[in-house]
Amino acid sequence: MDAPSGYVALICPACGGGQLWIRDGLMNCRQCGHEVRAEGGVHALALGSAPPADTQAGDVARAFFPTEAARRSHFRDLQMIIEQVMGRRHLSDVLEIGATGGAWTAGLSASDRVRKLYTTETSAAALNHLVSIAAAPGTIILQSGAETLDFAPESLDMVVGRATLCQLGDPNAMLTRIRGWLKPGGAAIFLEPCLQGKIWAAFAMDLIRRFEEAGGPNDEAPASGGFLGRKPAAKKGLSPLAMMRLEGGTRQVLQGAQGIGRGEDRVFDISTLCGVGYEAGFAECFPIDQPQDEVTPLRRLKNTLEGLLGHEKGALERYAPVFEALDATFGALHETAPVAPMVYFVFRA
C-alpha cells in the first residue's frame, strides 16, 4: 500500500532541502524537482540506487524470522521498553534503522501510536520482505544505509535500531546526527551487544571448556582429591569442534571488549557508550536490561551457549550449578547488573 500523500521529514538527497513530499506514491522535492524512485512499495532514497529486484517471499521469510509469532515476541519486548521510556503518548514520526527481517517493523507499522514510520534497509531480500509484513499506509520503506539518511532538525519523536550501532564504522557520528533529528523529549533506543552481559557468556564458555579439558565435572566425590573430580572414561566429553567454538566465542567477546571487530564481533561497554551519548548532546543515556516477563536474561545467556554447542548442548546439564548460582545472584532482581548478551541503550534528547 502506498504511503499517504503529504510532507515527509526526510531531507532531499539531491539539494539538501527539506521539501520532500509524497504524492501518488512518488516522493519528490518541491525545491529542486528531484524524484525519489519508488517501486513495489520501496523508495530508493540513495542517489543512483535502484529499487530491489523481486525475491520469492518464502525464501525471504525462511532467511530471517520464519514465523509471525517470533516477530510478535521481539516487538513485545520493544513495546515494554518504549512505554518505560516514552510513556503512552502518540508518536508522529518514528525512524527504524536497519530493519533486516522486520522483528520490530510489523509491530511499529501496525501500532495506533505511530502516525508515520520510516524504516530502512539495503538488502533486496529484506526490503521485499518488509513490504509483505508492513503494509500500513503510514509506513515508508526506504532503500538506504544509515550513513546516507538525513532528516529535518527536530522532526522525529523516536529512533530505534536492532544491532545497528555495532554495524557502523563510527557510531559516535551517527548518534550526533540522531540527536539533531530528535524533537526535545524524543529518544533513540538501540538493542546492542553489551560487554557487561556478554562477559558472563564468555565466563561460562571458558569455564566449561576448561572443565572439559580436565575431564569434566563428576557427580561423585573424587578419590584422588582432584578439583570436582574427573569424568569417567565411559562418559563422552564435548567434541573438538565444540571445544573450538567455546574458545572462539570467548575470544570474540574479549576482542570486542578491546574495541576489535565490527558487527557481531563488536560489544559496547555501558559507561563508554553512554559517555558517547552525552558527548553527542543527549540529556540522558542509560541501559535497560531485556524484559524478564517471558524470557529471562539468564535464559538468553544459555541460548547463546546452546547455539554454540548445537546438538551437543545437552552437556550444559552437567553445569547446572553454575547457572543456578547465576540465577540466585545476578538473575535475582531487575536492578542487578545485566546478564543478557544484548541490552537496550536509551538516549533521550
TrEMBL record:
Residues 95-190 form the Methyltransferase type domain. Gene3D superfamilies: Vaccinia Virus protein VP39. The lineage of its organism: Bacteria, Pseudomonadati, Pseudomonadota, Alphaproteobacteria, Rhodobacterales. Pfam families: Methyltransf_11. This is Methyltransferase type 11 domain-containing protein.
